[in-house]
Design a protein that fits this description.
Bound molecules: fe (ii) ion
Number of strands: 0
Largest sheet: none
Order of helices and strands: HHHH
CATH class: Mainly Alpha
Shape: elongated
Number of helices: 4
CATH architecture: Up-down Bundle
Distance between the termini: 32 Å
Low-confidence stretches: none
CATH superfamily: Hemerythrin-like
CATH topology: Four Helix Bundle (Hemerythrin (Met), subunit A)
Length: 131
């Protein structure tokens, strides 16, 4: 899994803290998935995945509010990236994931962290690049 790293820092405390939390949630789900001694871990993984989705929605709103507050010019294309991500996550029927689907959960987590990694480095960093 990917952890939050210094390179992700965009310099807005609220946004950086929220990014850390997204990685924490993804890693929490990943650690549970890898834990062979944890009984009934799937219910907990599904709970964390739901929390991650809801937190992403909440975080995107904070980021968009911030962009609006500074009259950021690229807010629309940025928002499209957020909406696309949420749409992809909404298409996943988390409740249908059962215990035979380790690979499915792993692929989903990898998709999520890779997307966040690319989005922070490529798109979020631009918010403060011209300030
Ligand atoms: Fe963003």
């Amino acid at each position: 899994m990917i952890n939050w790293k210094e390179e992700y820092r965009i310099g807005i405390k609220l946004i950086d803290e929220q990014h850390k939390k997204l990685f924490e949630l993804a890693n929490k789900a990943f650690d549970l998935l890898k834990d062979d001694f944890y009984i009934d871990k799937y219910d907990d993984i599904i709970m964390i995945l739901k929390e991650l989705k809801n937190y992403a929605i909440y975080h995107f709103k904070s980021e968009e509010d911030y962009m609006e507050s500074i009259k950021y010019r690229k807010i629309l294309s940025h928002k499209v990236e957020h909406d696309d991500f949420i749409q992809k996550i909404e298409e996943v029927d988390i409740d249908k994931i059962d215990e035979n689907q380790d690979k499915y959960i792993l692929d989903l987590l990898e998709f999520i962290v890779n997307w966040i990694d690319k989005h922070i480095l490529g798109t979020d960093k631009l918010i403060t690049a011209d300030l």
